[in-house]
Write a structure and sequence with these properties.
Chains A, B, C, D, E, F: One of its GO terms (molecular function) is kinase activity. Six copies of one chain form a homohexamer. Chain A is built from twelve helices and 15 strands. By secondary structure, chain A is α/β, with parallel strands linked by helices. Chain A has a domain of about 120 residues: 3-Layer(aba) Sandwich (UDP-N-acetylmuramoyl-L-alanine:D-glutamate ligase). In chain A, the strands form two sheets. In chain A, strands 1, 4, 5, 6, 9, 10, 11, 12, 13, 14 and 15 form an eleven-stranded mixed β-sheet that branches. The first copy, chain A, has a four-stranded mixed β-sheet with strand order 3-2-7-8. The longest helix of chain A is centred in the middle third of the chain and has 16 residues. Chain A starts with a strand and ends in an 8-residue tail after the last helix. Chains in contact: A-B, A-C, A-D, A-E, B-C, B-E, B-F, C-D, C-F, D-E, D-F, E-F. Chains B and E meet through loops of B and strand 8 of E.
Amino acid sequence: MAKHIAAFGEVMMRLQVPGYELLSQASTLQYSFSGTGVNVTSALSHFGHRGYLVSRLPENAVGDAAASYLRKLGVDSSFIVRGGKYLGMYFLENGFGARPSRVTYSNRQESSFNIAPEGTYNFDEIAKNIDIIHFCGITLAMNDGVRRHMKELARAVKSHGGTVVFDCNYRPAHWGEGGYAKAKPHYEEMLQLADIVMMNEKDAIFTLGMPTDKTEREEQLIELLPQVAKRYQISLIAGTHRFINSDNTHSLRGFMYKNEAFTFSNLLTFSIYDRIGAGDAYTSGIIHGEIEGFTPDKTVGFAAAASMLAHTVVGDTPMSSESEILRAMTEAVGDVER
Amino acid sequence: MAKHIAAFGEVMMRLQVPGYELLSQASTLQYSFSGTGVNVTSALSHFGHRGYLVSRLPENAVGDAAASYLRKLGVDSSFIVRGGKYLGMYFLENGFGARPSRVTYSNRQESSFNIAPEGTYNFDEIAKNIDIIHFCGITLAMNDGVRRHMKELARAVKSHGGTVVFDCNYRPAHWGEGGYAKAKPHYEEMLQLADIVMMNEKDAIFTLGMPTDKTEREEQLIELLPQVAKRYQISLIAGTHRFINSDNTHSLRGFMYKNEAFTFSNLLTFSIYDRIGAGDAYTSGIIHGEIEGFTPDKTVGFAAAASMLAHTVVGDTPMSSESEILRAMTEAVGDVER
Amino acid sequence: MAKHIAAFGEVMMRLQVPGYELLSQASTLQYSFSGTGVNVTSALSHFGHRGYLVSRLPENAVGDAAASYLRKLGVDSSFIVRGGKYLGMYFLENGFGARPSRVTYSNRQESSFNIAPEGTYNFDEIAKNIDIIHFCGITLAMNDGVRRHMKELARAVKSHGGTVVFDCNYRPAHWGEGGYAKAKPHYEEMLQLADIVMMNEKDAIFTLGMPTDKTEREEQLIELLPQVAKRYQISLIAGTHRFINSDNTHSLRGFMYKNEAFTFSNLLTFSIYDRIGAGDAYTSGIIHGEIEGFTPDKTVGFAAAASMLAHTVVGDTPMSSESEILRAMTEAVGDVER
Amino acid sequence: MAKHIAAFGEVMMRLQVPGYELLSQASTLQYSFSGTGVNVTSALSHFGHRGYLVSRLPENAVGDAAASYLRKLGVDSSFIVRGGKYLGMYFLENGFGARPSRVTYSNRQESSFNIAPEGTYNFDEIAKNIDIIHFCGITLAMNDGVRRHMKELARAVKSHGGTVVFDCNYRPAHWGEGGYAKAKPHYEEMLQLADIVMMNEKDAIFTLGMPTDKTEREEQLIELLPQVAKRYQISLIAGTHRFINSDNTHSLRGFMYKNEAFTFSNLLTFSIYDRIGAGDAYTSGIIHGEIEGFTPDKTVGFAAAASMLAHTVVGDTPMSSESEILRAMTEAVGDVER
Amino acid sequence: MAKHIAAFGEVMMRLQVPGYELLSQASTLQYSFSGTGVNVTSALSHFGHRGYLVSRLPENAVGDAAASYLRKLGVDSSFIVRGGKYLGMYFLENGFGARPSRVTYSNRQESSFNIAPEGTYNFDEIAKNIDIIHFCGITLAMNDGVRRHMKELARAVKSHGGTVVFDCNYRPAHWGEGGYAKAKPHYEEMLQLADIVMMNEKDAIFTLGMPTDKTEREEQLIELLPQVAKRYQISLIAGTHRFINSDNTHSLRGFMYKNEAFTFSNLLTFSIYDRIGAGDAYTSGIIHGEIEGFTPDKTVGFAAAASMLAHTVVGDTPMSSESEILRAMTEAVGDVER
Amino acid sequence: MAKHIAAFGEVMMRLQVPGYELLSQASTLQYSFSGTGVNVTSALSHFGHRGYLVSRLPENAVGDAAASYLRKLGVDSSFIVRGGKYLGMYFLENGFGARPSRVTYSNRQESSFNIAPEGTYNFDEIAKNIDIIHFCGITLAMNDGVRRHMKELARAVKSHGGTVVFDCNYRPAHWGEGGYAKAKPHYEEMLQLADIVMMNEKDAIFTLGMPTDKTEREEQLIELLPQVAKRYQISLIAGTHRFINSDNTHSLRGFMYKNEAFTFSNLLTFSIYDRIGAGDAYTSGIIHGEIEGFTPDKTVGFAAAASMLAHTVVGDTPMSSESEILRAMTEAVGDVER
């Protein structure tokens, strides 16, 4: 039951130092193009859906390269508008063991996406053609123009009967000091428009300012998420808890709250090749489970396995097919496949 | 006591995606040339023997590259015939953690080796010059022409007093449906010609159809291998049991049945860089131990350590010297050698 | 006036030795995916049209990589069917100066495309959606199955009022001995179906067996092409004459015969980075000129400049935009653009 | 007679596609750090002088990498201030033959250098320690803040008896529409402060708006430069005339006007590897000639040879020693030096 | 409180096979320049001090490359003398798991440093300009000329009131058979000149020949180091104990003996990327702690964390800033920093 | 008529900066192993002969890599002795246009080859097995031990009826000041032992001190070579004249003096990729022509074409087959071969 899913979001150029050198040691960079919206729609296109990105790319060689790259990832570029001159970029230096990875941003405030004028996108046309739209809290942090686009598109999709997905994804660096207070009204507006929300207890406590006297993450989650779902009329809330182990492996447990019930996945423990974008793989797994009518158990297990595999794949963008994820849910790690 | 050892087998071109990207993400491939016969004779040449490959390579740039590469590995190319146009190839995408490695074959049925006509090789000449010949079950799976070459060469070596080594190595994909039944008569014919056989309990149960009511691998092994040795008059049977651990390490125990007695190595546990070809390193260790007159204990320990080191080496083909393997048998992993 | 243009043809994997090493010297390959159909439709998509490939790719990692790569090139994959196991491949070793480049093919007769069964493609559906279809003489050389597909699709497009382009492109190696005689009836059938044909005097003389007593290429061209156009009712015939100069530059003159008149481009002389696929750039220029209603002079000049630029671009597939080609037609080579 | 020479200017990160691929074809970039000031002071440090850069770099991994790189080039970083978050960047795609190279800028207006606040630099301290200061017209195009720094530093150096070098280097893209009129007052102010000026007849005509009825470049030069020298009291004006030949070689003639006399170098014709920064090599040659008291003939010949060699070197920044340039002035291109 | 610290020592060119191939498998090498003195002074320059190397580099392209590289690392090259023709080199093949890394030296006895004649360095000038000088036992092993330079410089620094650091670092391969006896008088002479010494119980037992009836490393340490400190009047002795674990991680405990008291760091356990040079990071941490007046606890913890991070960094030379080390002392390994 | 040809000479490790960077700009090196003897015997093995190297390689990872590499080149390693610790190395920085290539040697006087003790090689055994032995003037320049080996081997081959080839190849840097006088007696001794000699008029004038009043190279050649042939009883003398053209191409004319007659090849003009080793290709062509009994015209033409092609091949060692050279003698440079 292939669906048409769009995401609204910025495309970033990732400039990664190969191997484990620092930027001050190396002389080459590997580049790719990604973003939450790119990752989610590319992942869904690997599951057989049609994934569109709604975004704006510069009209130059960098924009051409980004557009080519997105098509390579399976993202349909029909709703991508060209204009402006700059693309947001970030440098990535890989950590090793006790040394953490390091991200350095270039100036993204002047990017083609972030300065797109009113009327850049034909939201009505987009809304007519899609079943589901995906938004992310990082976009919400950018500026008023982008926020206006975001809310306008959400309303257009709602009015055409589509489903709105919102990933809370709060990045302190983008909101600056006093960020939670600045962010709250915008988050509330998006939550009211959303049907499916990606979040955890921290978003409820810090961004929405909800009180709790529980101290354990899971207890807080179980106390607060039902309140959020009720207050903003959200039909499904999902997310993950991540644990960083002393042997450099990570552990992940997925959860989902729907129809007044919580479902949790097994705790998965695994080695990590590239951690960025693994949250988007989880989102895509939840969306796919909902589209396909999986049971909550299967949906959460599928999303968690999708996220686990995304940690083993090069680059931000998940690359696994549905069958590869289903196999990872059931089988032990095996020998070479030949 | 350097010996002349030949192997009869196909040379494959390995086209490997560097690092951990998928074929749909990368743009370069690393290539090398290998095959069970290449691996075994190259490993033996690193131990000081003279290793020959009996094979057929295309008469073009790809064949030239393969021949150069084999010489680089220390394999003597005097018995390699040139003719035909194609070489078998396979693509290798490295897995990481929860994501398994993936092998994709090109069409090898039309390879120079697999379509070599009658009379391609001068088996009598070859048999006169060598002490030991090595064959592999993968070759047996190819087609009637190759099987005829194989058996003819085995008989020629026997008639000149040489030793025949046969590695059962059953690959289900090559025999297709109902494969065990198709394979059985060919395997039996080779076992009757063989002096040294590489196999384990699975080969006895599935390929030779031998019954057992034991359920543990080791019990099955101990029940069945003596029957095989007796039925086909085989003087030495050896092999390994592999265990894949949850932390991505593998464990390996080597075994050997000779003079009606079993010998087992310690269980070795180690990290893996490149798993392909590690079984051939074990074979080469057994052959070397027999040539040198090692005790069964030393032979099995040497072969297991050779296999362990082969997992840490780039490419299919083992690269360790005898002294490096002997050191790995006795010492803990140490600091940099400088 | 963007059109929908499809090409029917095989996708090949190009495995190129980087720099100037031989396959027996190097250890890495650069890979890409191309083919006459890929090149023509990708080039046209860079001019703003929608380019589709009608082809069949294997259902494995190699097929996935090819499909991703085509999308990156701007080719729409809606009419690509997945099935079979093999993709045709060729190795490319770059020549330097006095040493020519060298191409070594793998076995392409068993490729997914070449063994596609009857009913693989929905020709009627394709024909309904496109304005122009492109075929190539290399495809015609493959086997009866492929030839049947080819002619069936050509007839389907004609019956829906579309335009058929046929590039004669005769490759002696593929037809084998006595090739011209074998090829002639198939070429004649395609010429009868075609509206636009890429060919030169050699095709007329050797493939069609047309007599001439002229000895100069241009005189032969002027004598024979009008006869071909008349005999097969072709509205436009175009092609190039290439001259290889002693200083490693090439010179190229484009020609076009339409409405009973010849038009020639200037003789362009240029340095060459990658010669493969430059003929397809010329074809795409002719098709674009016809779509846009350029004068014959502009069409031939545009096609020749497109071909010249394609010689300066990495890989088989042309990458230039319309504006870049128009600028190359008028300006001298300049300084850095910054 | 080693001198202390500083340059005031922005450091840019150059992100170059390796080989001849486009940004939409490749997946890696080579990076380096350069700028007119970097190039001139690095070149002078290769001649044995002490070269300082006066600039501001971001306080993050990108700034660290830039600082390391400048030290590697031999530039003393004592006068480099750290602060801000962004570094200007540009992408470079190498042209080939008929296809020109292409530069795409990122947003440099928010760079650490371009937003450096008043009081960032201790101009008096700098002026005390150096003999010569170098400025460039590209910096003049940035914004009022940078222009203020520039003029303040020029005045400080003058007041301590130092020499001011100004390279007119007008870049239309940076000044925008009506740029010459905007630029003129700033250029005039800098010319009045300058002792040595790099310019040619175009700067006089377009930026300074000086009339001429001559039509040949050289005639215009000879008419206008003496007027410029007189009007702004400049003791030395120098520059080059570049000719782009049809075989992709360039020809260069250096000139210099001093003590009311013109001196011209021979016309040098050469192949080009990397054209960017070759003008800065010429400037460094003129400055070195003046420091060392070369005759005008030798100075102009040295500067032209320095520029020629800079075209053959990888990257923006000249790498030749004085002895290599002197040898290039006298010898024919020879065989391998071994 | 930035200090001027110099180190006297040889610069070596490190030629490393990339990845995990052997020298007989690969075709490229990565090169860098290092040495104990380089590592210590570069590390200290990353902490804000001014680090100088006192050494001699060849007057050719290799020497130029070394000098550039040292500047890139932040080492001041003012006291580097140019002369001679050769640089010591070593090849490094990376081990993996059970396979140890392997170092192969080229001939370093004829290096520019090791044959530097009397009078090469202006020791008095150097001594006047620095606060601390660092020496290493590897240098002491070279030859009489180098030993004379070493002791002369130590005395010059002492006479100007500077601090002498001596790292015992005994390499058996360099002293040859009967090495401890040959080495002892030279070590004793250096210990008498030294204020701060890097050593552990093995140096006391083997090089200095001090008796002990303890069998545990730590007991031996606690017995012997106070005797050493007293006998040679050393104010601070520091070092590490390293343990190689079966899962390829290493554990490290730093110690320090000062004012008649021992201080030990926590036992740190970590994964290793590049082990070479990690001891020099420990030394630099001790020196920095002493300069800054850290408590012994903080100094030992800082030095141990500096060493741990140096194991995670590419190349011999430590790259961490003071703040990165302080964070590594307190925080658990975290998620990506963005 | 395949022959057994040995060469006596040193194996060098070539460490080449990739592309056009300097050693002070780059961070990787490409390595290969070569030498005059390697080049000549590898080239002859590509013509179907059996080529042996007589040399000594270190017993370590560097020696293993060299031995593997030689086998890859087709050189038989049966006469290679292992011992000692060092291999000669040289760094190569590629020039571009006006900037010449640059070679920097490491210390080769202590190489395994140059310090090989008396009795290292079994000259009698070698002499029995080969038809032709090749020596080179570079080896003659090394030291007395090497010269003794060289002359002893030459005499052994003569005494077994073999042919001695001597390439004069005088390198001023190796002989030092007054080199011609030092070299003369050794050259004369070798010339007396030689049957085939590679030299030109400069060797006669400078090394042998023969007077001439001619001023043109060709006139000097024609005057002096017959005297040399007569004085030292040499049956064949051959060599080349090289001209370096202003457009970076080289021109080459081969010559040969035999049976009192001169034969000259056409003047070949060509682009150059890698100039090193091209002289050895010429030598191999002359030897092959003599073995095969070509006419002098064909021999000189074949040798000159072999040398021309060697300029277009990566690395020092010629890679062309006999058929490729024969084709290059007759055909114009053509289009891609496919």
